[in-house]
Protein: TetR/AcrR family transcriptional regulator
Organism: Gordonibacter pamelaeae
Amino acid sequence: MDKRKVANQQVKDRLLAALVEFAGRKDWSKVTVTELVEAAGVARASFYRNFASVEELVDYGIRQVTERYHAGKPEGREGFRDRALVEYKFRFYQENAPLVLAFHRAKAATSLLDLITDCEIACWGDMPLSSPDRYEVYFYAGAFYNVLLCWLESGTRESPEAMADAFMRLADGVAGD
């Protein structure tokens, strides 16, 4: 990557880090570009060279997490009944806890749930609208999202392995009924 691209990537990452710092203190929809560039220590023009709005910066954060998720996902692992994949998910989101919790605290939870749901759809494929089975993907994503947030907010006292086991038991209990 050439120097300009590296510098531009650093600007984007600094802006995202500044946005994350506002989480919990201020709803992201109310954060101004002026506040962001001041907190990030970048020029206003640098913001607008990369993003048209704060919402685009939020979307950039979602894309970054999604790309990292897919880049690290174990090959050949599919579906929510795959214990190794469930463990990977807990480990991944634990490693990205500051950003995940920032989305949650900034009232951008729908974006976070969409990210998790999109990752599940990428694994399973989107079901045809005529298939009642398509609801299983959304059920799983919502259940995982809620368990994940509770675990992250409680400080991840349990290991990703223990969380994968607990989540698998919960999912099997619901699916087994």
